[in-house]
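Lecture notes, part 5. Sequence design as translation. It can be helpful to think of inverse folding as translation between two languages: the language of shapes and the language of residues. The source text, in structure tokens, appears below.
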């Protein structure tokens, strides 16, 4: 039921209304143009609203209408391949209505209410159904079968169920209590969708990025953060994860990002091929574009919209990866709204509830058993943009308290053109132990030991670098000079990866293992010939060592690797025979 009030005060995106009988988080239409807003505070007779659109020209005395419902998203067939703004308005619909720039007060349905979908029921008349149970399927894309579920808060006995072609708003099933079910359901974005239980993550999210998969893996259903200064490669890393991670669905949220970065995503993704299916990548992707020039309040809505869509697909038993780029812009929006509400500021002006809001968001990840018994997961990967690359600022620190994987981007590495610019000394993963069994079983029995050995070598290299900077590498003993050469190979061959090379952009585990194995083989053989009296200067002159970096760019990887290893064996044999 709609309740009318009037505007009392306007302060940027924060509007105060009087005479409005509304509940917390009710959706409100503000002003003569009906701008969308949400109730965020109630003080006596005054209702404070954050508006998701530009409020220039709105003045006191204009009407304010409470819809009586919270901000909700439409969930059903048609979500995949869609591009939305922060409040689930399809951008292609807005483009057709008003051109290149979004005007105020325009509404659009999240799903196409006219498109027909073929519905195939899997239950029959007389069956009892409860919340979350699957009643039928729709083939949304070639590879994704969209399960039509009973909304979580509804149960009953089926009195009628239809099959055939329907729009998302037509009734497909009626229960004996009179409840009608459609292909579409609505869900409030701030309320997590209920699940039967949560499970511990035991499988890695395979990303095809060697530094992530090899040294700092994240589990499916886990949480990760990518903090880094401007220009260090956060967005490219996020886009690589969206392109190549082995999940069924990708939800990409551009939260307050620059327009040209979102334009890159919008132009690249439709042209990319999914490595798992060979189909266009957009067929498994939902994009939410909320650029930095859009009203700040909509940044919060975009984050909640994205996670709610992800939960819906998780409930079908699908693995979902959600990329939020960047949560710092969301935190900045919270800071602006909080200051306009005249709340007591916390550290660096951020609201005292910053950590609670971040935790609420990341805690909606996980491996879960849905109400219908399907096991699905949401992996949340959030980029953080600390000003000046300062990891001690509140957003980074509060994020690190919550997430279990920390991929620290380093400006110095990016300046040296080392990409991905993830600092192997500062980064960590708390999922390593829980995933070791999977790596041992599915990659190689010696994979975990080899990874730990590589990390030890890189740690020793950092200790030696201080001496090298003082006296030069020639002053080091031969064994330490050799260690520096092996770690240089680990850095330049294994850790460096070209996101824009058609082959090196994605590296499967089989190739990752063989590259690291080849480097370790070189190290073992080199140490052996070093002990027999061969000087380091002779070992570093080997041509096979210089050919190894080229292997990762070859289309015929195995044949190229075998040729380099055979040449390496011959060269070491000749050194031993000296």
């Amino acid at each position: 039921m709609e309740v009318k009030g009037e505007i009392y005060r306007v302060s940027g995106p924060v509007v105060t209304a009087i005479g409005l009988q509304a509940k917390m988080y009710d959706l409100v239409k503000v002003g003569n143009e009906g701008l969308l807003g949400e109730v965020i505070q109630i003080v006596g007779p005054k209702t404070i609203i954050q508006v998701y659109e530009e409020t220039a020209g709105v003045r006191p005395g204009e009407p304010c209408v409470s819809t009586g419902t919270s901000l909700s998203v439409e969930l059903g067939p048609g979500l995949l391949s869609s591009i939305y703004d922060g409040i689930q308005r399809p951008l292609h619909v807005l483009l057709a209505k008003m051109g290149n720039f979004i005007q105020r007060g325009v509404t659009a349905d999240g799903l196409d209410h006219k498109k027909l979908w073929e519905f195939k029921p899997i239950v029959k008349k007389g069956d009892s159904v409860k919340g979350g149970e699957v009643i039928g399927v729709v083939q949304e894309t070639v590879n994704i079968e969209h399960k039509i579920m009973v909304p979580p808060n509804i149960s009953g006995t089926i009195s009628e169920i239809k099959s055939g072609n329907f729009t998302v708003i037509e009734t497909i099933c009626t229960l004996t209590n009179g409840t009608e079910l459609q292909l579409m359901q609505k869900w409030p974005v701030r309320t997590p969708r209920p699940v039967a239980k949560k499970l511990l993550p035991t499988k890695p999210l395979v990303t095809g990025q060697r530094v992530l998969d090899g040294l700092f893996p994240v589990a499916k259903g886990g949480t990760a953060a990518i903090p880094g200064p401007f220009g260090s490669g956060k967005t490219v890393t996020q886009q690589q994860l969206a392109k190549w991670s082995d999940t069924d669905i990708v939800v990409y949220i551009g939260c307050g990002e620059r327009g040209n970065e979102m334009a890159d995503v919008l132009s690249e993704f439709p042209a990319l091929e999914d490595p798992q299916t060979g189909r266009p990548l957009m067929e498994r992707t939902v994009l939410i574009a909320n650029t930095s020039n859009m009203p700040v309040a909509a940044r919060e809505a975009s984050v909640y919209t994205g996670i709610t869509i992800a939960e819906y697909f998780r409930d079908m038993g699908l693995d979902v990866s959600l990329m939020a780029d960047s949560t710092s812009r969301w935190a900045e929006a919270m800071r602006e709204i909080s200051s306009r509400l005249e709340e007591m500021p916390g550290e660096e002006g951020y609201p005292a509830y910053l950590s609670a809001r971040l935790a609420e968001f990341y805690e909606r990840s996980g491996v879960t058993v849905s109400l219908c018994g399907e096991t699905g997961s949401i992996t949340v990967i959030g980029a953080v943009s600390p000003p000046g690359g300062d990891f001690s600022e509140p957003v980074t620190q509060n994020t690190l308290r919550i997430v279990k994987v920390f991929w620290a981007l380093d400006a110095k590495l990016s300046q040296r053109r080392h990409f991905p610019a993830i600092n192997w000394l500062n980064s960590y993963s708390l999922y390593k132990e829980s995933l070791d069994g999977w790596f041992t079983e599915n990659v190689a029995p010696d994979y975990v030991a080899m990874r730990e050995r590589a990390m030890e070598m890189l740690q020793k290299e950092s200790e030696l670098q201080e001496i090298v900077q003082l006296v030069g590498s020639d002053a080091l003993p031969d064994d330490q000079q050799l260690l520096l050469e092996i770690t240089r190979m680990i850095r330049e061959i294994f850790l460096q990866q070209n996101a824009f090379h058609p082959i090196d952009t994605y590296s499967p585990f089989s190739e990752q293992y063989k590259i690291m194995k080849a480097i370790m083989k070189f190290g073992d053989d080199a140490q052996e010939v070093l002990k027999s009296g061969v000087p380091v200067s002779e070992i570093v002159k080997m041509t096979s060592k210089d050919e190894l970096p080229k292997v990762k760019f070859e289309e015929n990887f195995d044949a190229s690797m075998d040729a380099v290893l055979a040449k390496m064996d011959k060269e070491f044999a000749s050194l031993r025979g000296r």
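The translated text above is only one of many valid answers, since several sequences can fold into similar shapes. The chain has 16 helices and 26 strands.
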